[in-house]
Amino acid sequence: LEKITHSICTLEFLPHRPLYNWLIKQLEIFPSRQIEFARLNLSYAMMSKRKLLAYVNDGIVYGCDDPRMLTISGLRRRGYTPSSIREFAHRIGIAKRDNMIDMALLEFVIREELNRIAMRVMVVTHPIKVTITNYPEGKEELLSIINNPEDESAGSREVPFSKNLYIEQEDFMENPPKKWFRLSPGGKARLKGAYIIQCDEVIKDSDGQVTELKCTYFHDSKSGQDQSGIKVRGVLHWVSAPHAYEGEVRLYDRLFKVENVGASDLPTEEIINPDSLIVVPNAKMEPALKNASPDTYYQFMRKGYFCIDPDSTDDKKVFNRTVTLKDGWKRKSTK
Question: What is the pTM of this model?
Answer without folding.
Answer: 0.90
